[in-house]
Amino acid sequence: MRNTRAVIDLSRLERNYNRLLAAHGAGSIMIVLKANAYGHGMIPAGRFLAGLGHRLFAVAVLDEAIALRHAGIKGRILVLGPHQPGSAPEYPLHRLEMTVASLHHLDALAGEIATDPPPEGLDIHLKLDTGMGRIGLQAGEVSAARALLAKTPAIRLRAVYSHFAESEKLGSGFCDEQLAAFEAARAELLQGHGGAPSGGTLTETHLPEAHLANSAGLLRDPRYHFDYARVGYALWAPLVFDVPADGPPEPPLNRELEPVMTLSTRITHLKTMPAGATVGYGRTHTCREGEVIATLPIGYGDGYFRQMSNEGYVSIAGRRHPIAGRVSMDQTTVSLGVGDLTAKIGDEVILLGGVGDDGSGGIPVAEAAGWLGTIDYEVLTQLSARIPRRYVYAGVEVDLG
Fold first, then answer.
1. Model confidence pTM above 0.70
2. Which domains can be identified in the chain, with CATH numbers?
3. DSSP letter at 36?
4. Catalytic positions, please?
5. 302: which residues sit within 8 A by CB, 6+ positions away?
């Protein structure tokens, strides 16, 4: 087995899950497992969370949803991406719920199932664009959508939802603008369904469900909660909020969330370099006399960013050391300084996340994202399948398939 590995601490995941579940007023969250569960392993994570009794999931694309079903994941699964023409039969076949994101898509779907409607019906979540600007019905399309749904009984409106554009920017009031737009569009859509309640959890069970909050929205304000919140990244690590000096503080619960993954490797080679020697492709690092260079068996072929070259740091026995030279496809070199003979071949190196075997501190993913000029989501989702994921609970390895 490779020395490079990503260890997923299921004890931390369980604690994060329970905290986030309790944060919702109705104790209900939809767990988003897209992009390989943000790099943590979609199937193992889904199995573990299902084992905790969770029954409400979401993914980005149909293939992810079918993979979860084939892995034995039960309960509800929503596909967040807009449906593709010809794919409608797959949804009832695998007991999946579909996102419909435009009047055009809704009309096409009605035509697609008109000649052969599924006997069990087709459950959809109608996506409203309240300011994100990607997908979703515009306000002027809502009444036409309502009329089309009324004429197509095989399509069941299971839920209506939208998505925040800047929920992690605490100085912005745009979430409240989106909330108002969501409630207005929802009220118009639900005319003839007995009327829509004014925010919060639905109280009339015959009404379609509503969901608006993402992870940050869940932590920020109960007005955003509705029937359930869609929780993705917050399961795996604390969120990074933009906190203005004179604005609202970071939600306290965010400080309780724990990073779940630790990406580590081990030193495979050590050498002491003469003055003027260079390291790596392009010879971008020039050594001092007696500088010790450690080689690590990980590179951009594993999703460890090439932009880390001469920018990032690793942690060895609690001490930080800079990456020296360019990250190559399969190997990375690190400077241990001049005359540092304490490190040995086989020593553990923390690349991202938590703590090492000896309890030493690691490299927060959000900090690494800062070195790269990106966000922590991208750092974790880029870790490739070549890195083995190892799952532990209370320090004991768990086989989740």
1. yes
2. 10-236 (3.20.20.10), 261-398 (2.40.37.10)
3. H
4. 34, 281
5. 4, 330, 383, 384, 386, 387
